Amino acid sequence: MLTCDEYLTPTSLDEAFAAMAAHRGRHRLIAGGTDILPWAREGRAGDVDVPVLIDITRISELTERKVAAGRVRVGAATPIQRFLDDKAIATAMPCMPRCAIWFADDQIREQATIGGNLANASPAADGVPPLLAHAAGVELASKRDGRLMRRLLPLNKFILGSGKTALADDEIMIAIECDALPGYGGSFEKVGHRRSLVISVVCLAGLVKLDASRRRFEDVRLALGGVCPVPQRLTEVENFLRGAAIDSGRLERAAAMPLDFVQSRTRREYRREVVHGFVMRGLINALRRAGADADVLKPELEAAYA
Ligand SMILES: Cc1cc2nc3c(=O)[nH]c(=O)nc-3n(C[C@H](O)[C@H](O)[C@H](O)COP(=O)(O)OP(=O)(O)OC[C@H]3O[C@@H](n4cnc5c(N)ncnc54)[C@H](O)[C@@H]3O)c2cc1C
User: What number does the ligand 1 atom closest to the CA of 192 have?
Assistant: First the structure.
């Protein structure tokens, strides 16, 4: 069980940093609590007493969302559900609604935040691959010598390993910023040990933009999670497909490329098979949603990976 002596609910960054300074070394930040609470349970971390919990979800800047000038900015305390029901965000981030629909259940999606998902840095965190595909960065803030300091780190420099991030003790994650990609087809493929409330064994985010002929890739972005300590962009596969004509042989060759990424010690062969199938399915689904010409995306190919 998680216990605390004080549960603070600051409504501004100033108040939050003042609370952090006053309780340095004795506090922990909490957002939705959907990672912290199960962690502080018998069998995992056991009983945990944190003297001061600082709930950052009432700070308005942490729940703001904006799409402007080709960029998306989403507050770190944005619940996962908003990626499904905020139309502007869903349009600008075509694989996020598909990620959100597979994320836990209705109750957890309202509670769990995107910032908590990134800060927890689980290899299986579903939010990471789509954000990597969107070339996301995280904005971190601290108050040092009375001055508010902000820094923007690319997501792949923020997550350093399983459960490890570049977040300093005196920092709060404020927002996530990424490319707005309206017009791309998006996909999110996920498999776990059971269908509902599943933690990913493998997940893949895909984004595809077609050229004017609708028969050729203009841009491709793919990211894989669950099979290595830190989710990865599949840049080699992306480069192999970018600018190429869409044909099943090229898709199959692309799907065979990332198999060496699978570092998991358990069920390695199974995961490699899943990765192959997910790259195919992720690309096919993203191509269909991007509006690929029916001649190049044959029904039998779609059926084989449905
Ligand atoms: C039943 C269930 C199902 C789940 N299903 C999924 C799933 O399908 N996919 C998936 O990826 N995860 C899943 N999870 C895990 C969890 O819901 C997510 O990782 C969630 O996004 C965590 O967000 P949170 O706001 O609840 O984090 P919290 O538990 O509040 O915090 C997690 C960590 O992040 C830190 N933190 C939070 N916000 C900030 C911030 N702004 N700045 C700095 N540090 C911060 C906290 O200090 C803590 O260390 C599930 C959990 C449960 C209980």
Answer: 8
pTM above 0.85, yes or no: yes
User: 200-252, pLDDT tens digit by residue?
Assistant: 678 999 999 999 999 999 999 999 998 888 999 999 999 999 999 999 999 99
Report whether 49 contacts 184 (CB < 8 A).
no
Return phi, psi of residue 246, to 5°.
-80, 115
Pocket, ligand 1, Cβ cutoff 6 A: 28-36, 38, 56, 76-77, 103-104, 108, 112-113, 115-117, 119-120, 125-127, 167, 172-173, 197, 199
Residue 293, Ramachandran bin (φ over 0: left; ψ between -120 and 50: alpha; else beta): beta
Q: Where in the chain is the domain with CATH 3.30.465.10?
A: 60-179
Identify the architecture of domain 185-304 in CATH: 2-Layer Sandwich (3.30)
